[in-house]
Every structure is written in structure tokens, then in C-alpha cells.
Amino acid sequence: MDILTDITARRAALAPDATAFHIVETGETLSYAGLDRRSACAASLLAADGIDAGDRVAILCRNRVEFFEILFACAKLGAILVPLNWRMPASELDGLVADCTPKLIVFGEEDRETAAALASTHGLASLDLETGYADRRDALEPHAGRTAWPGEEPWYLIYTSGTTGRPKGVIQTYRMALVNAINIGQAIGLRPGDATLNFLPLFHTAGINLHTLPVLINGGKVHILPGFDPAATLALIDAGELDVFIGVPAVYRELTLHSDFETTELTRLRHWSCGGAPLPDVLVETMARKGALVCNGFGMTETGPTAFLSDEANALRKIGSVGKAQVLVEARVAGPDGRALPPGETGEIQFFGPGLTPGYWQRPEETAALFTPDGWLKSGDLGRFDEEGYCYVAGRIKEMYISGGENVYPAEVENVLCLHPAVQEAAVAGVPDEKWGEVGCAYIILRQGQSADAKALSDWCRERLAAYKVPRHFRFTDDLPRTAAGKVQKHLLPVPEALS
User: Fold this and answer.
1) Is residue 341 packed enough to be buried (19+ CB in 10 Å), middle (13-18) or exposed (0-12)?
2) Which CATH architecture describes the domain 3-385?
3) pLDDT digits (tens, 9 = 90+) for 345-384
4) Is residue 104 over pLDDT 90?
5) Residues of CATH 3.30.300.30 domain(s) within the chain?
6) HEC states along the chain?
7) Where exactly does CATH 3.40.50.12780 map onto the chain?
8) Pairing of strands 294-299, 271-274
9) Angle formed by the axes of helices 454-464 and 410-418, nearest 10°
10) Phi, psi (5° rounding) for residue 330?
11) Which listed CATH number (3.40.50.410, 3.30.565.10, 3.20.20.105, 3.30.300.30) goes with 400-499?
12) How far, CA to CA in Å, does 17 sit from each of 218, 278, 359?
């Protein structure tokens, strides 16, 4: 896997008239021949604007076909794409742009003002996807492109949104893209011609790799939306237009709460999966009641991302598990001394294999700290294996807290809270306590029309958990701070008033 062929060129040669993209909002379709021509002409446009091999191209836009044209154009040139988080203001993106030093910023209409500010501050050339881009692209001859895409070369950078610290640019190589396509493809039984939906943010690895890039490599169809729309998603499912689907827990919550959920025939979609954060058991059971077995998975931007995924046959029997490590990745659970732990013991989840990032952009010290002396990637997440090799994630190492000398894993407590009929979502964090050192504080979003107070939720937990795991504090809220993947940013949760 040291060299990749030009993906769009090969797909155009194999099935030029097959549909690569369907734009849901307009009904427009783009064939593989069209995608390859547009990408090659976009490469000529980038080259005309001074982009060469190794140069960085920043892009700031919502989900749209042009993003993938530019992604493949960069591959044809050997340039490096840097998707920027459109949820961040220009002041916050300044550090990212200074870190990756792009020559050019490409942007869509919604982000024109932010892009202009960045271009002015950093002296960047700019390319507006709404004004003149298509005309300039189509007036150029297709770029010949490179004969091969070396597997170890960076293709794009993904800046991790981070649950505890400032973002780092995770290098994504061509090899990582191919390994991920194999890992997720065999795990979900991906078939040529399968259709998926692209809506997860493109500045996040899932927006590119789950499942869009693997589907394109396999010659399938990608329906694309600017962002998540539960009504449009359920309509596509009910019409039998989607074969494979992945969402984060917040997406599944919105689907199950939508008025069309009960009338949608979920079994028309063949494979459901979830990543980004643990899917509460209650959502797994709600989907299963309608015939949809959602397979929980786990991976990282640094793993490309696919590492673990549950299998449908055991999704309910092993509820709460993220499954087994996939075919081109090895995983272990290690103790503080680096020793691999036996089944049942909790430690850090670590990875080994050909699909791991080579490191962080311009961060040699943090790259070195990412790996163990024997070459395993440290996830920073706690987990355990059972006797059958199924992995259970307990949460981030930094999220675990010690109450009265006992380890408490917030994910376990959150799962119990989410089983309460009034609770839509829960996040648990450790807070200081004079007597016990630390105790739990639960941040609760209640279901619409439901009510519960701190005593009711405390009693609920006490019936199902050891006393030291029961949160001491409960705070009710309408929202929680999140990363692009839907993970709760616990370092941004407010400290209970009595402790501040």
C-alpha cells in the first residue's frame, strides 16, 4: 500500500456514467467521469494560482461537491488540503492558519466574511466557490495529474477539535485513506454501487472518511446535504435511497425524536453504525425496536479513523461494546507501565497497524508523545476487553475521577442516566469534594415534556450503581458544549455554583 492510483481517474475509466454524487437539495447528479474532469480542471486552476506539490490549501465551506473536487485536485498535484472549522470565528482560526501556512484559502458563500479576514491577516490568495470558480475551472484543460499518489505522503490535515486542549493538525496520508476504506468496507459489507449520505462536517474525519471516501473508492453513490437534516434523511431512508449510514449520537437522538421516525421504514437501509462518542443503550434499543441494528464503533482522527466496530449479529448481545478491532488494525489495553492487560482489566486503549497517522503537523514533541517506545499509538481513552475480544470504552483517561479511593468512569454513569425515561442526554464530570476528593456532577438534558429532579435521578442511579458512582450534584441544561464529532467538551462544563 505504498502507492495509490488516481482514484477519480480509475473510477471514470471503470464506470464513467455511474453516479458519484447526488445533491439532495437540487436533485443535480455528477457522474464519475464528471467528477474526474472537474477535479482535473480544478487541479489546473490551483496550479494557475501558484499551488505546487507540498503547498497547503485551506478550505472553509459547508458540505458540497466542490469540496471533494478540491480534495482530489490536491491529490493530483501533491498539494495538502486543510479543511477549516466553519464553527470557529476568524480569531480562533488564526492560530490554525498560522500553524499550517497555506498559500490559498477556498471558501463558500456562508463563510466569505471569515475567509476574507483570514486572507487579509495572513496574506493569502483566495478562491470563492460561488463567484467565478466554476467558469474558471471549466475553461481550463484537465491537469494530467501525477501517475501515482505515494502512500506515505500527506493528503490533508485534520485539526482535532479537542475535548481538553488546543487543536493539532493530524496528518492524513493516502495510505490511511486506503486502509480505512478496507477496514470500514469489510466491517459493513460495503458493495459496489452502495449509496450513503454525506452530512457530517468536512473539517472532521468522519465527514470525509465515513462513509464518503470508501463509497467513492468502491464506485458507489454519495447523496450530499450541506448539514444534517433529519426530515430529509428519513425521507431518503424511507425511499430506499440509502444502503449504509453512520451518525454520531446527537444525530440518532434527532432521528428518533423526529415526527417522521415512527412511519419511516428503517429496514430499507442495510447497515447502521455510530461513532464519535458512545451511543447510549436506550438509543440502540429504540432503533432495534424498528428493525435497525446500530453498530457502535470507535476510532480516532489519528487512526484514520476506523478501528473498532460492532458486528450486527452481536450488536444487542454486546450492547455498550464498540466491537472488535478491524482487519488492518491491532488493539490492546495497557496499564500505566505499558504492559498489555488481560480481559476484564481497564487501561489505555492503544493501536498498531498501517493506517495510523505519522503524527502532528509541525509538532515533533507531541508526535513523539503520541506513540509508545514499541510503536503503539496511545489513544488517551480507557477501555477493557471481554473474554470474547469485544471492547468497552470507559471514556477519556483525563475524565476518570477518583471518589473515596475508587475509580469512576463517567461513561458508565452516563449510560445509566440515559436509561431514565425523562433523560434525553447526560454528561458526568468529576468535581472537587472536601470529604471524598472528587464526586460526580451530572449535567442533564431532559426530554421535551418530561420532568425529573435531582432526588429522582439520584435514586435511579443508586438502584443501579455502587454508591460512590452516584453523582453528588445534578445540573439541568438545554445544551452541552460539543466538538464537531458530537463529543461533549467536559472541560467547558460549568463548575457547580457551590464549588466555584
Assistant:
1) middle
2) 3-Layer(aba) Sandwich (3.40)
3) 999 999 999 999 999 999 999 999 999 999 999 999 999 9
4) yes
5) 400-499
6) CCEECCHHHHHHHHCCCCEEEEECCCCCEEEHHHHHHHHHHHHHHHHHCCCCCCCEEEEECCCCHHHHHHHHHHHHHCCEEEECCCCCCHHHHHHHHHHHCCCEEEECHHHHHHHHHHHHHHCCEEEECCCCHHHHHHHCCCCCCCCCEECCCEEEEEECCCCCCCCCEEEEEHHHHHHHHHHHHHHHCCCCCCEEEECCCCCCHHHHHCCHHHHHHCCCEEEECCCCCHHHHHHHHHCCCCCEEEECHHHHHHHHHCCCCCCCCHHHCCEEEECCCCCCHHHHHHHHHCCCCEEEEEECHHHCCEEEECCHHHCCCCCCCCEEECCCCEEEEECCCCCECCCCCCEEEEEECCCCCCCECCCHHHHHHHECCCCCEEEEEEEEECCCCCEEEEEEHHHCEEECCEEECHHHHHHHHHCCCCEEEEEEEEEEECCCEEEEEEEEEECCCCCCCHHHHHHHHHHHCCHHHCCCEEEECCCCCECCCCCECHHHCCCCHHHC
7) 3-385
8) parallel
9) 110
10) -105, 150
11) 3.30.300.30
12) 15, 39, 39
**496, 483, 486, 470: which is closest to 425 by C-alpha?**
486
Taking a C-beta distance cutoff of 8 angstroms, is the pair 274, 308 a contact?
A: no
For residue 169, give the nearest of 161, 177, 158 by alpha carbon. 158
pTM as predicted: 0.88
Cβ atoms within 10 Å of 70's Cβ, excluding its own: 28
Whole-number Å distance between alpha carbons of 220 and 214: 9
Neighbouring C-beta atoms of residue 472, cutoff 10 Å: 17
φ/ψ of 21, rounded to 5, equals: -130, 145
pLDDT in tens, 208-259: 999 999 999 999 999 999 999 999 999 999 999 999 999 988 899 999 999 9
Beta bridge pairs of residue 406: 403
Cell of 210: 465515513
**The three cell numbers locating residue 322:** 464498540
Q: How far apart are CA 405 and CA 307, in angstroms?
A: 32
